[in-house]
Amino acid sequence: MVQDINVEEGMQQHETTPLLSKRGRERQEIIDDDDDDDDDDDDDDETKDKDVKDRKWFMSTVALCSAMMVQSYLLISVFPYSGFLAMHLLPQLDSENVGSYAGYIASCFMVGRAVTSFEWGKATDRYGRKFAIEATLFLSAIFSIAFGFAPSFELAILFRFLLGLSNGIIPAVKTIISELNRGNEQEETKMMALVLGMWGYGFLLSPAISGYLSDPVKQYPESSLAQGPLRQILIEYPFVLPNIVSFGMCVISFVAVHYFVEETIPKDNLVSFGEEAYNIVRNISSINLFKHLTFTKVDQQSRSPAKFFASSPSTSAFLLDSEGMHEDNESNNQSQISVSWIWSREKTKKHLIVYWIYSFLVVALDETFPLFCMSVASGLGITESQIGNILTGSGLCYVLMQYFAVTKSVSKYGAYNAMLIGTFTSIPMASLIPFSLVLNRGSEPGELRIEVLVYLSIVYSIARVSSSIVFSTLTMTTNRTVPFHARATVNGFSMVGGSFGKALGPTFAGILFAFSASSGVFRAPFGSVFVFCIIGLMGLILIALVRDLMNFVDTIDDDVRQKPGEADQNFSSSSSINEESEEDIPTF
If we measure between CA atoms, which residue out of 490, 172, 186 comes closest to residue 350? Predict the structure, then answer.
């Protein structure tokens, strides 16, 4: 009996098992289909996220390129007409004695920038990267118009100096490029090449734009512009049009940066410039200048600077009270950035020294080259238009080669090796320029053979492209020698030395060339050969300093290794790589 029951139960179990398995398989198929749909949705979301990121990267790059183009235009656009502007404002001058006054107009921009670069760097760390760029563009627009309408030489010098004084683009741009790419060295190299490459494009386009628009009544007396209702203004202010272009470029770039560039410092770590300015005014009220202003205790607490100073990642926290200003020691230990602090960091110091020396040599070469072309005894003895043809040819070569040279060299060799190659093929390349005298031998005075034009265009463009490689890689590697919150300050400090180097370079080159060409120590045309050899030798010495930087490959200090927080992933070390694309991104 029991056996029959067991058999019966077994039969029932046998009959129900296939049905249950079938239902289970159906349920499993439904679950699998749902998983496939989820996977497809995830893939679609990832594709959309990638498209959004690519679009943001592209628009950020375009906006930063516009800011760097403005920077280049502000500096270079004055060169074609500075002498004519000096003669317009000082009628007693002529073409023979205007040189020094034209130099004052051209150089006071760099002097102003040297004075405030370090402070702009600190402001960039304190108030934000976008704030520094937008403030610069806003002030530059104002001072550009003021410079164009300057009624006297003294005011022209003043407004040109204020243009440099209010220029904080480069420290902010160099810093934000590294941070926007969040450790992805491949993307950072591309953006750095494009944005810093705008400097070279500016050298090519800015003189042409400003030269074409300068003094239109004199250049195009029969044009509708010269004969129109603006004629009297253009006679009184003949160089206002290039500065109106500058104003327009500043406005366009301001809008682009405002809408398409994201702030890389977390909002909670930013100091409000408006609130800080207000509290400065409040502090001034303690000397009874604003006795009519009264605040409740709640107002005073809500406006306390400690509320926003204490969270700043890049500056000391200061507490303002009735007794004065007291430094928050704990914040100071973590984030006080000073020149002595920067100089105490061996890696940072050596990178800055290389940047300063290289800036000096690049500008010295740029000053020497036209002097060599102009000199009859120790050079080619060619005209301004022929020099312009050489610079145009080299500029076109630069446009074609610069981006690919920077990105490919860093991708293939790494940043430090690319820097070494760029140093060798830029300044030492100067020693090849005098060979053009041999190629041009036998030609008529003032004549430039086509093969000489091509040769000089290629040699000079290689030097310029190589300098772009050096400046790009120096910026990336210098950023990685300091903590996140100190990058903009260090970039500002680098611009101080760089500006002084660029101010001294032309003076050094001019004195050296004048001595070599006219002192009688060297027989013509070997004076110019001596000058280029000296500059090339200094470039070879710089190579030794660059090789010393290569000792820092794959090294990182403890404070640099620390990130500013989980909410901010904008910082990576010199050897860190984005994990999602590790195989595709070159290391240093």
Answer: 490
